[in-house]
């Protein structure tokens, strides 16, 4: 069965949510992954959105993190101080999903600028709640549409969302492990937590470790027991296409 | 609305506009453009379309924000031109994270000198924003934490579903940071879909997010949050969001848009009428009523 990159990333990310209880999801691929996991490997998963929605049960696929369909039928809708203060900073999120323009080997993320902050070549949306998701979630999964040297960099142009190593160096012990999984079209990079760099642990069929190394802007470690990712199965794809995103809002 | 903006928004003021994707006070932003305010500091967590429009309208000198983008629908052309190329003039920009902004409002609302949060450690943001500082816990020498300063806008403008004449304001759906913004500000204007009888509010007091004592003016302005939405009233205009990136990418096109839709309309009612009933029918929502609760009454 032919799969698009959105389908591939969503299915692979959804599998990683097996056994998780609460996930902080942004819109797009994280929503697809969390929704699919809810139907497959994590039926009890509570999906929390930055807008304040906990336990969303939307009738349609949401187009934004604040879509009206997320409100109707939700288990709770919290004001922002409660969502960010009690839920997130209080340590109630197992997995946070983040994206970024740049990532480095320690899982630090840049979503603010390309170039100098004061006079950037490209002004990106900025931190939003990504810094809080990174600082407070048990672990963070990153889904990157592009795996190349412009995104997987040796040095970030700007560190918007620092992982635990940078936080510790700044004298503050973070709650979570930072980025533990990075899912891309080429494979999966993983790290165990503080002090560990990202390593290549799995590749998609037909992708070689050298290919991933060449697309990564730092000297990428490869796991001794590198595995090949099981391609999306028919059942996973059917649920994703027919139940999660039948109107193909994100499944391009 | 014209009276409220004339009375409460002055050149050079710090103006907070809040509403997290839901209930964005767009009509108020448009009226500020119509009245030609200059030199404003705009405080808004998610600087989105209405901020891009106010920038293009020449109203804004400085922006305080934690997210600058056209939601998930693309980019803000005017904002990027001002930050990336100082075109047509530089924009002073103060960047925080979402919770940093929330804590600034909390500190402002509660008259605290700062508010601590478990963010920013290891980030580059403190190096470009002197407002973000690290302090030692007074209880444990080894414990450090970042803090943010309070914010006290001259005026906060928020949109809501309904209020009574006195300003008791009810919101449902996403309640965002509106109440804290109102309490942090020196003056507060609440724009509502409808002004209702006192009895409507009093029959459901838990739904009141902002009590009248915090409100200086109530403005009735149906559909005043477009292109954002009002839960239970009308849906988000996703097509408008998707279309905005192309409009704002081209400065001439953006100024034509402003000339036609903001400066070319007398008020928001005219803007609403110009869009047309068929347009609004597309954004209509069905009913999903909550069940009444029993507040009880002494026998």
By DSSP, the count of extended strands of chain A is 14
Q: Helical region count of chain B?
A: 12
**Number of domain modules of chain B:** 1
Looking at the structure, what is the overall shape of chain A?
A: globular
CATH topology of chain A: Glutaconate Coenzyme A-transferase
- Sheet with the most strands: spatial strand order of chain A: 2-1-5-10-11-12-13-14
The whole-angstrom Rg of chain A is: 17 Å
User: What is the CATH T-level topology of chain B?
Assistant: Glutaconate Coenzyme A-transferase
Short description:
The complex is a heterodimer of chains A (252) and B (299). With 252 residues, chain A is of the alpha/beta class. Helix content of chain A is 26%, strand content 21%.
Characterization of this structure:
- The complex is a heterodimer of chains A (252) and B (299).
- Chain A is α/β, with parallel strands linked by helices and 252 residues long.
- Chain A has one domain (5-243): Glutaconate Coenzyme A-transferase (3-Layer(aba) Sandwich).
- Chain A has 8 helices and 14 strands.
- Chain A has helices at 5-15, 29-39, 68-71, 80-88, 130-136, 164-169, 209-214, 234-244; strands at 22-24, 46-48, 53-54, 76-77, 95-98, 102-103, 109-110, 113-116, 119-123, 139-143, 179-183, 187-190, 199-203, 221-228.
- Chain A has an 8-stranded mixed β-sheet with strand order 2-1-5-10-11-12-13-14, with helices on both faces. A two-stranded antiparallel sheet of chain A has the order 3-4. In chain A, strands 6-7 form a two-stranded antiparallel sheet.
- In chain A, β11 and β12 (187-190) form a beta hairpin.
- In chain A, α1 packs across α2 (29-39) and α2 crosses α8 (234-244).
- Chain A starts with a helix and ends in an 8-residue tail after the last helix.
- The mean pLDDT of chain A is 93.
- Chain B has helices spanning 2-8, 26-34, 49-56, 77-85, 98-109, 125-128, 178-184, 198-202, 238-249, 251-261, 268-275, 277-282; strands spanning 14-18, 40-43, 46-47, 60-65, 67-68, 92-95, 115-117, 133-136, 144-148, 155-163, 169-170, 187-195, 208-210, 217-220.
- Chain B is an alpha/beta fold and 299 residues long.
- The model of chain B has no long low-confidence stretch (mean pLDDT 97).
- Helices cover 33% and strands 21% of the residues of chain B.
- Chain B has one domain (2-96, 152-281): Glutaconate Coenzyme A-transferase (3-Layer(aba) Sandwich).
- In chain B, α2 (26-34) runs parallel beside α3 and α5 (98-109) packs across α7 (178-184).
- The interface between A and B is large, with 60 and 50 residues.
- Chain A: It comes from Amycolatopsis albispora.
- Chain A: GO terms for molecular function: CoA-transferase activity.
